[in-house]
Structures are given as C-alpha cells and as structure tokens.
Backbone:
C-alpha cells in the first residue's frame, strides 16, 4: 500500500455505513491522486444473472452530467455522414471506420450505428463488447435517428448493465460539489430501483457503495438514498 492510500486509511474509517451526504464528502476528500479522479458507484443487486429476465440494462442522463466531454463515434453509410457531423459526432465513417476499429482504434466514449451497418459492426463485438461500446438497439445506439442519438450521448447519457450481480458506472468527477455528487448518486439508485425485475423476491438493492478511482469503497446507507 502506497503512502497516499495508507494515509487515507489512517485518517478515515471504511467499515461504517455512511449517509449519502457524508459518503459524498468522504469520496471527494479522499480523491487525492495527482489527476482528477472519477467517482464510481457500485450497486449489488439481488438478481440471478443466469435468468435473462432478471438482467438490468439501460441508459440514463444524469442530472449533473458526467463532468466530461463525451467523444461520440457514428458508423453509417455516406448519406448519413453529414447529418451525424452536424449533430456533433466527433468521429464519422462507414466501412473504413469499421476496419479502423477492428485494427484497435478505440478513441471514443460512445458508438452509434445505423441498422444497415450492423451486419459489419456486429463483427466488432470482441473489440467493443468488453469496453461496453457495442451499439445496441435496446439502448437506442442502433438507430436511423442519428441526431437524437448523438445529441443524447453528448448531453451526458450513460449506459449501464449488470455484470453478474453488480451494476457499476462513473457518475461524477472529484471536483464536483458534494451537493452535485449526492444528486447523481440518488438519481442513479432511483433509476436502477425502478428496473426491478418482476421475478425478484425480497429486497432488490442489497448494497450501494461509491469510490474515487484510486480510493477505497465507501458503503452508503440505503435509507439515505431510497425514500
């Protein structure tokens, strides 16, 4: 354990449950790396991920945004290129862009495709899938309405899906105010709570924690985020 992290553990307790406002304070105050850290949220759900109807996925626009510029990539045929550029897409292309991504190009945060390009984009699953960048019609990233998709991504939409029983996402930056971080935490938990599958019995959200990129997890009292 490095000196920075050792000092954090010496000065703070991470065994307790914190009210969301106290936890937000702690997350911001322990973001002491030399770069601007992301504040992540992790929610442990009472689901059986082997059952398809219990998987949780979707997208949301955080009320306090992400605190970063989202670089959007659009894969479409040539007649849609100018439309995508006018909407604010940073990277636009067709077959050439598919080949470039296949070769390892991944300098973007969101990837949008028109339906007619999906037979070719589908081959990029091994490259885009592990990075949660694969276009998906259920999430609105496979669409002919390029303008709406690009504008939504630029506005700070984030995609989420469970990995086993966990849903994780970056929801703020370490320079956020406590109030803005609390707002995003509560909103994220509220959205996930509404996604409760019908087959789940008992409590749905088992645990919520937040953490800076280079810091320890902070357990949040559910009663302070779920009304």
Residues:
């Amino acid at each position: 354990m490095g000196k920075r992290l050792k000092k954090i553990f010496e000065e703070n307790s991470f065994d307790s449950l914190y009210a969301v406002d106290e936890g937000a304070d702690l997350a911001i105050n322990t973001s002491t790396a030399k770069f601007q850290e992301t504040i992540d949220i992790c929610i442990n759900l009472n689901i059986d991920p082997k059952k398809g109807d219990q998987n949780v996925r979707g997208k949301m626009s955080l009320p306090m945004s992400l605190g970063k510029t989202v670089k959007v990539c659009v894969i479409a045929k040539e007649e849609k290129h100018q439309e995508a550029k006018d909407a604010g897409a940073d990277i636009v292309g067709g077959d050439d862009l598919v080949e470039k991504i296949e070769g390892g190009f991944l300098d973007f945060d969101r990837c949008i495709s028109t339906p007619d390009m999906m037979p070719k984009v589908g081959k990029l699953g091994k490259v885009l899938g592990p990075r949660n960048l694969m276009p998906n019609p259920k999430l609105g990233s496979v669409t002919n309405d390029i303008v709406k998709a690009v504008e939504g991504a630029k506005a700070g939409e984030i995609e989420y899906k469970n990995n086993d029983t966990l849903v994780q996402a970056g929801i703020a930056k370490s320079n956020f105010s406590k109030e803005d971080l609390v707002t995003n935490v509560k909103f994220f938990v509220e959205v996930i709570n509404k996604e409760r599958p019908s087959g789940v019995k008992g409590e749905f959200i088992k645990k919520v924690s937040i953490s800076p990129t280079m810091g320890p997890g902070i357990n949040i009292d559910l009663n302070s985020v779920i009304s």
